[in-house]
Design goal:
By secondary structure, this protein is of the alpha/beta class. Helices cover about 40% and strands about 15% of the residues. It has nine helices and eight strands. An eight-stranded parallel beta sheet has the order 7-6-5-4-3-2-1-8. Helix 5 links the parallel strand 4 and strand 5 (about 115-120). It is globular, with a radius of gyration of 17 Å.
Length: about 220
């Protein structure tokens, strides 16, 4: 499996999704999820043209970061334990899994400058998923006003792994609508510009429904 060939196919799919939804291709950031592959495969991903890499396990992230350093922009996309924050701050460009106040407090404490964070929202309501219910998201963001080192760059969700396209679209639309509501509040530390949603199985639908950051692992780098 060649990463460059996979990327070419993925970009064609994204281009078609953008045409379907009257969007510009340059609105979409592809995050190569390298959590299950080797350092060499991660480097191949960068050489193919993907410079945003996503990791969801601390150990894997630290190992790859040590070898790759600033050749990539790093996105932490998995659940982050508060006690592990000190190990990623200063190394990641964005945290996609802000899902509780204790984590925000620790990020704020450890950071030397504002950190781009995506608030994780459990749109699907699945018990196995982390994140805020949509109705509690804005109130959580308002509570972050006292934390100078937290910048809410956007919202993130993980859709169910299902084939029901209409249900997937509904989940993505809910997140997009929630983002609009938050943007309307004009909160200075929460511009909420981005939507991190869509993975290998549903990224085309996510793009059509407004995704700005799609997290692609197996379809891009294999497993």
């Amino acid at each position: 499996m060649d990463v460059a060939e996979n990327l070419s196919r993925i970009r064609q799919n994204i281009e078609q999704a953008c045409k379907n939804s009257n969007r510009n291709l340059d609105e979409i950031t592809i995050i190569g999820v390298t959590k299950y592959v080797t350092i060499e495969r991660a480097k191949e991903t960068i050489e193919a043209g993907i410079t945003n890499l996503g990791e969801n396990r601390l150990e894997g992230f630290l190992e790859k970061h040590e070898n790759i350093q600033d050749s990539a922009s790093w996105h932490f996309i998995g659940t982050l334990q508060s006690r592990k924050v000190k190990e990623v701050i200063g190394k990641v460009d964005a945290i996609h899994s802000l899902d509780r106040m204790s984590l925000a407090k620790e990020i704020n404490k450890r950071a030397a400058k504002p950190v781009d964070c995506f608030v994780q929202v459990n749109v699907s309501g699945e018990e196995t998923k982390h994140g805020f219910v949509p109705e509690d998201t804005l109130s959580f963001i308002r509570e972050l006003e006292v934390y100078n080192n937290i910048r809410i760059a956007g919202l993130m969700t993980m859709a169910p792994h299902i084939d029901d396209e209409e249900q997937l679209r509904n989940n993505f639309r809910q997140l997009a609508s929630l983002r609009e509501n938050i943007q309307a509040e004009n909160i200075t530390y929460a511009p909420c510009e981005y939507l991190s949603m869509g993975m290998s199985n549903d990224y085309q639908i996510a793009v059509e429904e407004g995704a700005t950051h799609i997290r692609i692992g197996s379809d891009l780098v294999g497993s």
